[in-house]
Design brief:
This protein is mainly α. About 80% of the residues lie in helices and about 0% in strands.
């Protein structure tokens, strides 16, 4: 149902399964994805939280994805502080290099949106150093170079004040 984009039907199936048995974390993850697709971000975060609190999900890629996608819900709402906090949790709490690298890239973008050029640069440099084979490294290098230029441009304005 999810692959077909039938989100309402997918949610109905999840609710039916919840009533008839205890939902497992994979089912909660699908519910979160369905809520996200329907722009029901509070509900999505609640489902992602259930994934993250499930002991069986610990140390799984699904948990890392749930943490990352929780951050994404905040990012899309332009709540960059909350998104940054959740991306940092993804990097710190989940040993899934692909998701950790993606989280560092997005954390850097949050720092950019917040006008914190040095912190953004730090995120990008950390990604480049820790995950040198990641497909996100090329983007991190480009963004790092851009924030260095932005910081150089912003510095004289700050000094004039």
């Amino acid at each position: 149902l999810c692959e077909a984009g039938r989100w309402a039907d997918a949610l109905a199936a999840v609710e039916s399964t919840r009533r008839n048995q205890q939902a497992d974390y994979e089912l909660e993850f699908l519910a979160a994805r369905a809520h996200t697709a329907r722009a029901e971000l509070q509900e999505a975060r609640a489902s992602y939280a259930r994934v993250l609190s499930d002991a069986q999900a610990r140390d799984t890629e699904t948990a890392a994805m749930a943490q990352f996608l929780t951050a994404e819900t905040y990012f899309h709402q332009r709540d960059y502080e909350a998104a940054l906090r959740e991306y940092r949790r993804c990097d710190a709490e989940h040993k899934q290099p692909a998701w950790q690298a993606a989280a560092l890239l997005q954390a850097g973008k949050c720092q950019e949106h917040l006008g914190r050029w040095s912190e953004a640069r730090g995120c990008y440099e950390e990604l480049i150093a820790r995950y040198e084979t990641s497909p996100y490294v090329a983007d991190a290098r480009l963004r790092r170079d851009a924030v260095v230029k932005q910081a150089d441009t912003a510095a004289p304005a700050v000094q004039r004040k």
